[in-house]
Design brief:
With 423 residues, the protein is of the alpha/beta class. 41% of the residues lie in helices and 20% in strands. The structure holds adenosine-5'-diphosphate.
Amino acid sequence: MTLALGCIADDYTGASDLANTLTRAGLRTVQTIGVPADDLALPEVDAVVVSLKSRSIEAGLAVSRSRAAETWLRGRGARHVLFKICSTFDSTDAGNIGPVMDALRADCGEAVVLVTPAFPETGRTVYQGNLFVGAVPLNESPLKDHPLNPMHDSNLVRVLARQSNTQIGLVDLATVTRGAEAVRARLAELAGKGIGAAIIDAVFDRDLETIGLVAAEHRLSVGASGIGLGLARALVSTGSVKAAAISDAGAPVGGPAACLAGSCSQATLQQIANAERIMPVLHLDPDRIIARADEVQRALDWAAPRLADGPVLIASSSTPDQVAALQARHGRDAAGHAIEQAMADIAESLVKSGVRRLIVAGGETSGAVVDRLKIPGFLVGVEIAAGVPVLRAVGAASDMLLALKSGNFGGAEFFSDALRLMR
Ligand code: ADP
């Protein structure tokens, strides 16, 4: 198998978002958790997104992990590698976008790297090198107060120049609007001046298509899901990839189904209330979990006789008042961690006992469950709700389908919506 596109994402949720975007654009896409083992057996796919957690770690470490991911992707034939960053360009001046870009550029010998976090459909646009978040420049957006990576400069040519060892140029909107040939000419001009990377403006969706066409001719690009979309459309429109129907990721696996909810978001609380009408629901006692009482075993004993009859839901979720009271008693992190690990314990035992369809509500909760199940990657399927696709485990001990939902995602009937698509 030869990959048409390899991607390295600097965080997990960004990777999921990109993998979902590529899938919707017609690329058969696997998202891996970390750099996969050399012997990971992949299904026939067009793109792999390697999820790292490298956004806010020390730059040297981010570089070495990204290089390992690049080696893996190039080893599977990826001609183009996209380094996927946040659409708000999250990084400090010491931070990681520049150093990773420089290292990957050196590895593949790219003359000029195209860089853009633009994704107009989500309100991220770049004009004259300045990133806008909705109607305001980045440095006036809430990102100015980000706890890890506060962004005080909206001019990405300057931001990237402070992190990179190459000079940074600009491909402006006027050039992008004139089309792919004009962009190629501008890049050649920048390369002639020894400039190694360029921020490229994009304000409209169609700009991403022009950018994607040119980027696909290069070895490396840097950006968010927007440039991923542009690349995917270019690969399909030039015939490098035959647009695939998404459905094979969701082919039935059969076997019992279980839902786990650790999110306490308003949306999830409503979804649990609605699920009570269609399946048995067990509400865990969070105090008993933290006290290490036998709450996990109680849940498993409760689920065992019911699973043969249909799906079940096990929830730790409670209302904001109850969450605040529990956190006051035990500390926020200790409470959160203990409950996440209990959910992972439950998931592990359920899968051991034959559950093959697992729906998890809550971002951190999902992370704990996936880590525990040691699933190396996922083939991305159809969307259950915006941003929440059906996932088929790849390289795991058993064939299974999962849905991993951030707290606020999904409609009021999310659990039944998911079960309908996960047979
Ligand atoms: P979301 O996607 O809604 O943010 P997460 O799973 O990321 O959901 O975060 C929810 C956090 O709340 C987790 O750390 C989870 O363990 C914790 N938690 C779950 N149930 C309770 C509860 N009843 N009281 C306090 N914390 C809880």
